[in-house]
Amino acid sequence: MPQNPIDWHARAADLQPDGRLLIDGRRCDAADGASFDKHSPIDGRRLGVVARGMAPDVDRAVAAARAAFDDGRWAHQPPAARKKVLQRFAEKILTAREELGLLETLDMGKPIRYSIHVDVPAAARCLAWYAEAVDKVYDEIAPTGPNALALITREPVGVVGAIVPWNYPMIMGAWKLGPALATGNSVVLKPSEKSPFTALRLAELALEAGLPPGVFNVVPGYGHEAGEALALHADVDAIGFTGSTRTGRRMLEYASRSNLKRVYNELGGKSAFIVFPDADDLERAANTAAGAMYFNQGESCNAPSRVLVHESIADEFVQRVAALAPRFRPGDPLDASTEMGALVDESQLRTVLDYIESGRTEGARCVTGGNQALQHTGGYYVEPTLFDGVRNDMRMAREEIFGPVLCVIRFKDEAEAIRLANDSPYGLQASVWSHHLDRAHRVARALRAGTVHVNQYDEDDITVPFGGYKQSGNGRDKSLHAFDKYTELKTTWLRI
Ligand code: NAD
């Protein structure tokens, strides 16, 4: 029997998200009762009230996290026990898939099909993967002389402050929580004020899964209030930050002004997607570039926002992308067939339209799109936009737009392609399209980026590290390498 499609609008009408803080296993209001209304970018409807966490709330959350860490209720459990709890946590996320997906879509505007089929499963898989990994990581014995034994062990850093952005709230949260909790840390998570609800719900599910109270606390609020208080807190041992390069810079200042806590920054990007004339399949290259650029309304740190195309094939490439654009026309995010949803808020809409205007003013050619869409809904939508004739020194090529704007920059030869790709303050990802493996490999090696794709862009897996060169950040999320951020190495000499 075919199942009836879910009526997401009816479900949305019934949803009453709880925006209170979660500290020491309990929901509570902000110390001074402060709160703000959260509206949905889909249609402007009021979604709920969110506690406006401030320094006293952060103090309470950090104190709870510290107490939980110090008494060993989580850190001292055997890895196999932590594994069981995290596995249950991952299962609970999957069980709550529809509720979490709906919350994510209402909160930040992405299409429901992706919240349900990408974001929720990716968050669950991340936690399940770290759960599986935790009892398979061994410590080391150094190759020293015969009269002593030097043990090199990993210990949790202690209290981790996790500060995440609004574009993938659950996945970004899971990328911090997975390795931090698996290695025995306590966490205080500060979600973005623009998309706070799923993080709060995740913390409830973690408690239901058996995570002891105090180990995972959530303080919603604004960056300059709750975020700053957390990053400045003298009892926080490490900050796992994902967000803009501008705020990442602040994280380093806060650490230097407080306790020199470890700061791991995962920041912005302006990734180059390079198409050489010997690329085997221009149609697939165009499809991949458009799909990756317009996915999540272009609100992805790793979006291929600078597409460098050899001048001999650029006209054909541009035509192909332009022909694909209608497929990504924005629509109702609660309709299961919608490919592109709403931008997160009005300020993001204004920012994107301003970059589009800057491209026109600086002499780039808007081939398709370039306008606001679906104004009657009360939400924030922009057409999938394609610019040709972009120069790498234009604002739209240098700065992160964070919207559905694909910029084509033409190049003459391999050396110029490499120079243009590397001529950016960012270095998150890149892609090289060429039939010849020697060229692909040569160019991939020359690119200053944390991830380089060859003849594709969509492969992704929790098993590989994710992070950037240059001002795209330091440290790596995902994979076993993420353990480096949340553990201290200790050497213990034993006389034998
Ligand atoms: P943002 O820097 O404005 O905010 C990120 C988080 O930091 C939010 O929780 C915010 O409240 C908080 N914050 C803001 N100002 C603060 C301050 N002064 N002190 C402490 N906390 C503060 O970024 P955003 O607009 O939420 O997210 C978009 C950015 O995130 C883009 O630049 C994108 O490239 C980046 N991003 C990077 C990755 C990655 O893995 N490299 C992944 C996703 C997003």
Q: What is the topology?
A:
Elements: H1 8-14, E1 21-23, E2 26-28, E3 35-39, E4 46-51, H2 55-70, H3 79-95, H4 97-108, H5 112-133, E5 140-141, E6 148-156, E7 159-163, H6 169-182, E8 186-190, H7 197-208, E9 216-218, H8 223-232, E10 238-242, H9 245-257, E11 262-266, E12 272-275, H10 282-294, E13 306-310, H11 314-324, H12 346-361, E14 365-368, E15 372-373, E16 381-382, E17 385-388, H13 395-398, E18 405-411, H14 414-422, E19 426-427, E20 429-433, H15 437-446, E21 451-454, E22 469-470, H16 483-486, E23 487-495
Parallel strand pairs: 7-8, 7-10, 8-9, 10-11, 12-13, 12-20, 13-18, 17-18, 20-21
Antiparallel strand pairs: 1-2, 3-4, 5-6, 6-23, 14-17, 15-16, 19-22
Helix pairs in contact: 2-8, 3-5, 3-7, 4-5, 5-6, 10-11
The structure holds nicotinamide-adenine-dinucleotide.
The site of nicotinamide-adenine-dinucleotide has 31 residues, from α8 and α9.
Keywords: Oxidoreductase
Domain Aldehyde dehydrogenase: 34-491
Pfam families: Aldedh
